[in-house]
Amino acid sequence: MGMGAAKINSALRNTYTIAKRLQMISEQTAPSRTVEVNKRLIKCYDELGNNIDETTVRSFGEEWKAFHKFDDKELNRIGDQYFDLVTPGMYGKDKIAADFGCGTGRWTKYFSDKVGAIAAIDPSDAIFSAAGVLEKTENVHLYKASIDNLPFPDNFFDFGFSLGVLHHIPDTQKAMNACVKKIRPGGYFLVYLYYDFDNRGLLFKLIYRLSNLIRLLVCRLPGSVKRFVCNILAIIFYMPFVGLCRFLRMLGVPEKMRQKIPLQIYEKASFYIIRNDALDRFGTPLEQRFTKKEIMNMMENAGLSSIVFSPHAPYWHAIGKKK
To answer: What pLDDT shows up at residue 269?
Structure first.
């Protein structure tokens, strides 16, 4: 056997060992039940704990049932924006990762080929949609569990991420603490939290205030009506700004200037993604926003150091190293 083949076989054996380690460690905490979807076994831990808004959880379950099909090329493009701070030294086939609040599992799928095994965790029925998205991603294990009831020992994962999730939990600091507790010392945690427009001007803040008033009304609507209204809002609120940015890009206006326009981040997005994010933005009952300084303080309080914030949208996403 040549040296190249030996290395490949060794890597395959190592990946198998890592996956079995994740499976065995999670089995130490027996699930309330197990559900099989698309030949994927989902371990369900039905005790949600106190730090959760069940109305918001149900809302996300409905959202991800409606939006669970993603183009791989677009998924990779958006994923590159969220994971721009992640370097090869932070991951590897000998490591285990966790996606805290995986939704449909799109970011689990994006990151899965970078680690030996990955746990996709979500308290909502979105986890059943994730079983479809991740149907062919063999190193993923699925868990229906809340942040208050994670079925893993402390200091277990080498890498963890929570993208666009913790600001939908009543006590965001407590939720972040719970996630970071599961990361081993020397491991990394990547987080994205809605920003409080602390790096934006008056126009952005006024637009947010207006949109938030609409959200407070729309989020109370029944599921099907809410989705219809949010589709209309995607056309009314998103597309004028997106169209303007696309036009300016066609004219050769530099991106640095286009970034001053609200919703510029969507100028390359499909209408499917825009509709999805409109539902996420206007249909969610509980939403909190934080300044860069507040997020820094939360990450430090959770036990992270060497914290780095991305200078790029979406704001704010940052990564830290577990002490």
So the answer is: 95
